[in-house]
User: Which sequence fits this backbone?
């Protein structure tokens, strides 16, 4: 019998397929430890916990006590590697979390995106591995394939002095080869939950490979602990030694992480540099009110002005795979080079798209939320929300792809008359007003005929390449998988929050809604006049 993508571990939980969104973590859900896959506590570990207040002294990425990497208990080779990589001083999360990891404690680290969390767990793991080299020494679980490959690159860079052997286990790749690689016992395995679960379940020999594993890392822990990975995590945890160290790192906190923290109480070191859902100060956040029908026109105009704006590269976030594919075809017709990253593509195609963007071969990346977490690309100066995300937390992750590590950046959201409520929610969550900017409408709409023509060509190409049929089949398979896991009823759209801040209400009040309607009518009139002129 042919396996489904999910059965093969191919579904890495992005939730960006046509017609679907991410499964929202249920508020008030039972904690993970009550579901049968608790993170066991080593019997010999010393108890310690860091309170949230302790980590809130300084939010610029550095700690108030100026420690060096030498002060953190790292070996000379690790300190030297950090210097060679340009890491002169440890960042705040590294100062706080590396010592307790080296002391053998469980660690929960919560800090903003781009704060240096990867090195906070990678460096102490590599230090311990160098002392006792064997495989599999550590298992790192991350929610997306792209993050898995990025983590592998970062581990290789930080562990260049220890001849590190790494295996990446994700969907979309040859499972037989992955199984063979695991049996060879690499030092480090970086995996998405779906694929490693299938390999452990279907290959008894592979479970034995993890019998001595010392570290389990959950990167982007808020997402990994999402309900859609529940069954996979249960099985994975059962295959690992109970006396392992558990390291969880996340940019945001969730009810699941809070309940996990309460469960461990003083048995887990908790570092939380977190004051709600914040965006970094160096990020400029703007919105443009536009009529929905000409959204593609405005997008193309903005992209065509990147060089004039001094922007090196941009990520355009789109909510559905269909629109991502359509826009990539449209830009191709318009001779605008861009790479596209979404879950319909094969793993080889996804890696190639990411490589083209990272290397600078193309300056524009069109992506669904598969690219919204963890990806660290220094040259990203601009994030465009082609679609305003349905969930405010996703906005934070998206815009976190720019203005990283103290650098500046711009986040620009294209807001239509249907998005006002979503903008309210985002502003209430981040406790900040988004700057509304006036755009030269006549200049943008000068591209309308050209863009509309390219859009029509793109849609015809989608019919020819069978995209719609593929989308229907994937949606059918996704619904089947959710039904089998008992998650179909839990995957309903959340209720709209009514607890908006007063500041958020003032930004997009009734007056601006009326202005939006007027602007829409003006655009319709403009389009109609153009059509009349063409007929004449």
Assistant:
């Amino acid at each position: 019998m042919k396996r489904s993508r999910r059965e093969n571990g191919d579904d890495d939980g992005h939730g960006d397929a046509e017609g679907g969104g991410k499964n929202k973590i249920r508020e008030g859900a039972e904690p993970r430890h009550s579901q049968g896959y608790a993170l066991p506590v080593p019997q010999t570990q010393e108890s310690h916990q860091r309170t949230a207040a302790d980590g809130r002294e300084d939010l610029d990425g550095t700690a108030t006590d100026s420690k060096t990497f030498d002060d953190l208990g790292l070996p000379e080779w690790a300190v030297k590697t950090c210097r060679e990589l340009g890491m002169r001083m440890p960042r705040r999360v590294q100062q706080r979390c590396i010592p307790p990891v080296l002391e053998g404690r469980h660690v929960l680290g919560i800090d903003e995106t781009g704060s240096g969390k990867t090195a906070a767990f990678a460096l102490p793991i590599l230090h311990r591995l160098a002392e006792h080299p064997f495989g599999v020494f550590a298992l790192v679980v991350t929610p997306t394939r792209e993050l898995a490959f990025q983590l592998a690159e970062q581990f290789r860079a930080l562990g260049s002095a220890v001849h590190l052997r790494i295996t990446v286990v994700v969907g979309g790749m040859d499972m037989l080869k992955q199984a063979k690689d695991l049996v060879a016992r690499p030092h480090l395995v970086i995996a998405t939950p779906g694929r490693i679960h299938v390999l452990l379940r279907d290959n008894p020999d592979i479970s034995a490979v993890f019998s001595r594993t010392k570290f389990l890392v959950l990167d982007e822990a808020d997402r990994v602990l999402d309900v859609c990975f529940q069954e996979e995590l249960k099985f994975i945890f059962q295959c690992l030694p109970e006396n392992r160290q558990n390291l969880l790192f996340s940019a945001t906190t969730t009810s699941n992480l809070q309940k996990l923290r309460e469960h461990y109480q003083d048995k887990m070191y908790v570092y939380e540099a977190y004051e709600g859902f914040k965006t970094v100060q160096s990020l400029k956040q703007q919105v443009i009110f536009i009529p929905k029908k000409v959204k593609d026109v405005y997008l193309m105009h903005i992209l065509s002005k990147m060089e004039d704006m001094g922007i090196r590269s941009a990520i355009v976030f789109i909510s559905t795979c269909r629109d991502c594919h359509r826009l990539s075809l449209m830009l191709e017709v318009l001779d605008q080079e861009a790479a596209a990253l979404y879950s319909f593509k094969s793993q080889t195609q996804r890696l190639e798209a990411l490589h083209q963007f990272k290397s600078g071969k193309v300056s524009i990346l069109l992506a669904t939320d598969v690219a919204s977490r963890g990806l660290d690309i220094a040259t990203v100066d601009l994030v465009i929300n082609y679609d305003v995300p349905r969930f405010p937390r996703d906005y934070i992750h998206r815009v976190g792809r720019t203005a990283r590590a103290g650098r500046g950046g711009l986040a620009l959201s294209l807001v239509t008359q249907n998005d006002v409520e979503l903008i309210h929610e985002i502003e209430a969550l981040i406790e900040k007003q988004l700057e509304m900017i006036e755009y030269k409408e006549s200049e943008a709409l000068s591209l309308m005929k050209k863009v509309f023509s390219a859009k029509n060509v793109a849609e015809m190409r989608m019919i020819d390449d069978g995209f719609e049929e593929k989308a229907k089949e994937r949606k059918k398979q996704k619904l089947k998988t959710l039904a089998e896991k008992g998650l179909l009823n839990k995957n309903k759209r959340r209720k709209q929050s009514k607890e908006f801040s007063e500041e958020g209400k003032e930004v997009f009040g009734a007056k601006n809604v009326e202005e939006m309607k007027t602007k829409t009518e003006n655009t319709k009139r403009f389009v109609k006049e153009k059509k009349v002129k063409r007929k004449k």
Notes: DSSP finds 20 helices and 14 strands in the chain. The domain at 46-272 is CATH 3.40.50.300 (Rossmann fold).
